[in-house]
Design goal:
By secondary structure, the protein is α/β, with parallel strands linked by helices. The chain is 41% helix and 14% strand. It is built from 14 helices and 14 strands. The chain has a seven-stranded mixed β-sheet with strand order 2-10-9-8-5-3-4, with helices on both faces. A three-stranded antiparallel β-sheet has the order 11-12-14. A two-stranded parallel sheet has the order 1-13. Helix 5 links the parallel strand 3 and strand 4. The chain is globular, with a radius of gyration of 22 Å. The structure holds pyridoxal-5'-phosphate.
Length: 411
């Protein structure tokens, strides 16, 4: 990519007024409250002021994961937390069962292979979440318990399909199999209902840049007692990612190495915002915007990629392009004309789908701006569609109000 030099015009020169619409499924728009919280002097990370911040965020993030167990916070992108989840509980050559729900499941698999794990992948069609019956059957056949972990992606950001994690838990239990359950919740945490303890997950992987409304740069591992036990005998090499190194200083609000202090200020603010709204309201808001988006798609005559209605994602919707039309041409037209970024098709979906992110700091009018931009873009790019998608979404939003903030606070 060539960078614009000092004399070359940039997109912002051509379109100086109004905010860019960042409607990819993460990183998401960072609210002003979080931006202001981050914009503070960095402090001594070994001093008492930091300790109070550390204690706040380490306690608060547990409430977001719905866990009483420790949550490790890494100054890393989500990929780091993927690696951390594996290296803390597994040994070289261990067998891991994964389900190919889409591009991110495929990337996690690749990472696991590079670490020296033996990955068995249940193939998927990239239009649904991980299928619990297939996981059950594979585990039931594993009489010798060679499989040490099952890894699934809760919300496949490449497809807009979710995995029903309680069904996967039940599949493991019904097969009477001792495998650990590892779940990626990078694009669902704080957007779609998720319960680490209640659903019996051993390691949950999260990231800062989506539902948490923070800039990229933090990621998480939520743990279970079983995961902590597995860590004692796990032999994959680990140093930076070692939970033990983290948990000792975390007990007093500190970190073993220099933490991302300013992102932690942002995290404290983001947790406060989510709790002021109430997690149940946050999830209902995302459900409602996802439903409005699907109504727009139906009116346009565009197909939702996710084939299983119970697994529709509430944080993003991937729409299939009509045959012979390139999703990237449409996205380029929308970026050029309306300064709005939409998610591209990833991996085998390149050019075939575009993804509308409707997660994070997002309200009815953000959605309407987004859908109006898509509808105008479809016309400009010559993509066959019917008019009236934005109207269908407006009709739906006007017909059902959200509960007042805080009215249905999550436990
Ligand atoms: N898992 C999922 C579901 C994702 O959506 C992403 C990124 O979008 C990742 C993992 C990788 O995270 P990162 O890009 O922060 O390393």
């Amino acid at each position: 990519m060539t960078r614009a030099g000092p004399t070359e015009p940039t997109r912002r020169d051509a379109m100086p007024a109004g905010r860019h619409f960042l409607q990819i499924p993460g990183p998401t728009n960072v609210p002003d409250r979080v931006l202001r919280a981050v914009d503070r002097p960095t402090i001594d990370h070994r001093g008492p002021e930091f300790q109070a911040l550390g204690e706040d965020v380490l306690a608060g993030i547990r409430r977001i994961f719905r866990t009483r167990h420790p949550v490790v916070i890494y100054p890393a992108s989500g990929t780091g937390a993927w690696e951390a989840a594996l290296v803390n509980v597994l040994s070289p050559g261990d067998k891991v069962l994964m389900y190919e729900s889409g591009h991110f499941a495929a990337l996690w698999r690749k990472l696991a292979g590079r670490l020296g794990l033996e990955v068995e992948l249940i193939p998927g069609d990239w239009r649904r979440g991980a299928e619990a019956p297939a996981i059950h059957d594979r585990l039931a056949a594993d009489k010798g318990h060679a499989i040490k972990a099952v890894c699934v992606v809760h919300n496949e950001t490449s497809t807009g399909a979710t995995t029903r994690v309680p069904l996967v838990r039940k599949a493991i239990d019904d097969a009477r199999h001792p495998a650990l359950l590892l779940v990626d919740t990078i694009s669902s945490l704080a957007s779609i209902d998720y319960r680490h303890d209640e659903w019996g997950v051993d390691v949950t992987v999260g990231g800062s840049q989506k539902g948490l409304m923070l800039p990229p740069g933090l990621s998480f591992n939520a743990l279970s007692d079983k995961a902590l036990e597995a860590q004692k005998s796990a032999r994959l090499p680990r140093s930076y990612w070692d939970w033990g190194e983290m948990l000792a200083p975390n007990a007093k609000g500190f970190f073993p190495y220099t933490p991302a202090t300013n992102l932690l200020y942002g995290l404290r603010e983001a947790i406060a915002m989510l709790e002021e709204e109430g997690l149940a309201n946050v999830f209902a808001r995302h459900d409602r915007h996802a439903e409005a988006t699907r109504r727009a798609a139906a009116a346009w005559g565009l197909e939702v990629l996710c084939a299983v209605p119970e697994e529709y994602s509430s944080s993003l919707t991937a729409l299939v392009m009509p045959a012979g039309h390139d999703a990237d041409r449409l996205r380029d037209a929308i970026l050029d004309r309306f300064d709005m970024s939409l998610g591209m098709g990833l991996g085998r979906l390149a050019g075939k789908v575009f993804r509308i992110g409707h997660l994070g700091d997002f309200n009815d009018l953000t959605l309407m701006g987004t859908l109006a931009g898509v509808e105008m873009g479809l016309a400009i790019a010559g993509v066959p569609h019917r008019k009236g998608g934005a109207q269908a979404a407006m009709d739906y939003l006007a017909s059902c109000a959200l509960p007042a903030s805080g009215a249905a606070r999550a436990a």
